[in-house]
Amino acid sequence: MKTFLDWSAYDTYGIGDAYSGIPATGGNYAKAVAVCMHSRDCQKTAKGVMCPSYRVTGEVKHSTEARVAAFKAALNDGSDERAFADPRLDEAMDLCVSCKACKKECPSAVDMTLIKTEYLAQRHEIVGVPKRLRLFGGVPEWTGRHRALLRFAIRLRNRSRLLSQLAEKWIGVTARRPLPEPAPAAFVRLAPAAATAGARGEVILFVDTFCHHFDPHVAEAAVEVLEHAGYSVRIAEPAATDAEPDRPLCCGRTYLTTGMVKKARGEAERVLAAFRDEIAAKTPIIGLEPSCLLSLRDELYSLGLGPEVGDLGKQLYLLEEFLAREYQNKGLRLSLKPLDLPKAVVHGHCHQKAFGVMKATKKVLGWIPGFTFDIVETSCCGMAGSFGLEAEHYETSMKMAELSLLPAMRDAAPDAPLIANGFSCRHQIEHGSGRKARHIALLLRDALQPAPQAAE
Fold first, then answer.
1. Among the listed residues 172, 210, 171, 181, the one whose alpha carbon sits nearest the alpha carbon of residue 292
2. N or C: which end of the chain has fewer CB within 10 A?
3. Which Pfam families does the record associate with it (predicted)?
4. Closest to 405 (Cα-Cα) out of 387, 439, 431, 386
């Protein structure tokens, strides 16, 4: 079977295991599916994230184990070239939100997020890419090439009930919630107030599509924090040889989640070309959006781009990961002031939890004098990129949020900070609770001690 992703990492899986149940067709992809050993951790509802769809439906068919069974059936039916367009497989994958929890919490580390990407790519090959997926997956191109038009269209749609209803009818985008609007101006690096030599060295800030076009203030705050900590900050830019030098770099995450693997590979190649010199220099590269940065550290391996991917992954950090590492290993001490705020409520993005980043988040928040907070035990927020924008998934999206996230946000003190690093998470919180959540970079920026004034 031709695959769109590189599954060679699973080449030795199943050797010597008579009970692995590897399907008859599918090669290494089939082995990736067959790692499930039926522990049924995906059908638990205690602590953890997995499995968001099972948690809200209570139906086994919406668990990771059932999805594995559906894929095994499709791959065992080698005579049917249209197996990936089977409605039964569509039903099994319908509520998967690509949270990555199964890779972390399942004892067998089933990577259903990547399995889903391959499934969508296979399905697109048979029936074509639906226009809604082209719209959501193409956000990097829309914002990079037609930003003003996109902002105008979204603002018009959000303010017109008729247009939002027409959009739901034509392309299946729910009329029951607003679409995120691009900021009035995209991110532009402001000149620092004073020249900084970067006593602690140079770092590169990877400003993802969402921070660049929708929340530029998050990137601006991150620059302030890093410079205050003593780093010289350089913004990641496309390579000089890039065919689109004016379009910001993108991790390709939106293309992966919508199964447009060729597009994702193109974005990944741009990233590798841009960072080739930085890989050799081992310069730290810092990201702000969990799903974007962690996609570069994880899914890039599946795109068959060579050994540079592994070297790049060792240099990629979320902001709080980098700060915590520098504190632990290189003596970083941020000069922070008390904020005099009620106890904060912190929600971790699914990928932050899957990659163990919440420990760093907790550590960094603990540096703010007198700052107290609770990390809410939540599953997926339910937004999950474009999932919560899809008309048929709106109700499920809100049920996921109501399990614990939205009640915790509503119960927080009126002026308590709500912290959520995920772009989609923040929009779900605002839509469901009427309250705005903030990225940790903004909170740290607010807590920075003013730089001492030079004596005249």
1. 210
2. C
3. Fer4_8
4. 431
Give tens-digit pLDDT for 118-130. Answer: 999 999 999 999 9
Q: What is the pLDDT of residues 59-92, one digit of tens each?
A: 999 999 999 999 998 888 765 567 788 888 899 9
* pLDDT average, residue stretch 18-40: 85
d(CA 357, CA 346): 13
Q: What is the C-alpha separation between 50 and 402, in angstroms, rounded?
A: 16
Q: Which residues contact 4 (CB under 8 A, 6 or more apart)?
A: 117, 118, 121, 122, 125, 261, 262
> Tokens representing 299?
């899914």
Strand partners, 234: 204
Query: Residue 316 in contact with residue 355, Cβ under 8 Å?
Result: no
Give just the sign of the alpha carbon dihedral 153, 159, 163, 167. positive
Q: What is the pTM of this model?
A: 0.93
Q: Enumerate the domain spans of the chain.
A: 8-127, 344-447
The CA distance from 363 to 344, in Å, is 14
Distance CA 171, CA 386 (A): 13
- Residue 213, both tokens: 């076009």
164-183: pLDDT as tens digits: 999 999 999 999 999 999 99
Letter for the amino acid at 256?
L
| Mean pLDDT calculated for residue range 91-115 | 93
Using CA atoms, how far apart are residues 345 and 418, in angstroms rounded to an integer?
5
At 232 the three-state DSSP class reads strand
- Three-class SS of 123-145: HHHHHCCCHHHHHHHCHHHHHHH
Rounded CA-CA distance 64/97 in Å is 11
Task: Report yes or no: 315 and 286 within 8 Å, Cβ to Cβ.
Answer: no
pLDDT digit string (tens) for 193-252?
555 567 899 999 999 999 999 999 999 999 999 999 999 999 999 999 999 999 999 999
Q: Is 313 helix (H, G, I), strand (E, B) or coil?
A: helix
Concatenating the DSSP letter of every residue in 28-51 gives: HHHHHHTT-----GGG--SSS---
Do residues 447 and 372 touch, judged by C-beta distance below 8 A?
no
Q: What does CATH list as the number for 344-447?
A: 3.40.50
User: How many Å apart are CA 448 and CA 368, to the nearest integer?
Assistant: 9
What single string gives the DSSP state of each residue in 45-101?
-SSS---HHHHHH--GGGSHHHHHHHHHHHHH-TT-TTGGG-HHHHHHHTT-----H
How long is the chain? 456
